[in-house]
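anyone seen this seq b4? input:
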Amino acid sequence: MSENVQHNCGVAAIYLKKPLSEYPLGGSAYYLQLMLQHMQNRGRLSAGVVTCSDNPYSGLRRHVEPGLVHQLFRLSQYEQYSSLMNSLSSSIGIGHVRYATSGNGIEDRIILEEAQPFLRSHGKPWKEFAFAYNGNLTNSPSLAHELITNHHYTVKTKVDTELMMHFFAIDLKNFKKGIGLSIHATDYRNINKVAKAFFDKPQHQSFILWKSTPKIVVHAFDN
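predicted toks r here
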C-alpha cells in the first residue's frame, strides 16, 4: 500500500488557566507564536491569530498577514514584537498557518483576504466568533449555492472556511447567552476528517478543538 503524504493547514488553540501575570508577555499569543512556528511546514502562504481580550467590553482581536510566522509576529524587531504582544495579550486564542487547498490567493491582497482565522463580527458578543479550518470540503460548490440561494448570504472568497463560518452563523441564530453551544456537522454537508479550532466571547465560556467525522455533535465546555 502506498499513499502520497499530503499536508493541510496547521491549526493551534490555547487556553491559559492562571493569571496572565504568570505567563510571558502576550499570554496566549506568545504560545500561539511558538506552536505556529513548529507547524510552519504545514503552511507558508499566510499566518494568523485571533485572541480574546480579558476585558469584557473588548471584542476579539485578529492579526493575519501573508507570509511566515516570524513575519507575522515581528520576531526580528523587538519593539514591534512587544507592542504586538501587548495588543494581543489574552488568556485564550487560536492560530492558523495556511497551505492553500482552495481559494484564489496569488496577490498579497487576495492572500490577506483568505488568511485565517476568519472573524465573524456581531453586535451581540455571544454571536461573535473566530474560526479556523484545516481540510477540504468535497461539496463546496453546492454549499455555496445553498448559502446564496436559500440563506441569502454573500460568499466573498473561494475558501472553504468561509462556507463553514456562514453555516456556523446560521446555527447560532437561536443561540442565547448562557446556553451551551452545540455544533452539528451533518452528513449532507459532507465534511471530511479535519482539525478545527473555534471560540466565542461570552466570558470565554465556549472553546472547542476537535477532530470531525462526517457526523458529529460537539459541546462547548466551560473554563
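Strands lie at 10-15, 46-52, 60-66, 92-98, 118-120, 129-134, 182-185, 195-200, 207-211, 216-219. The radius of gyration is 17 Å. kinda curious what u guys think
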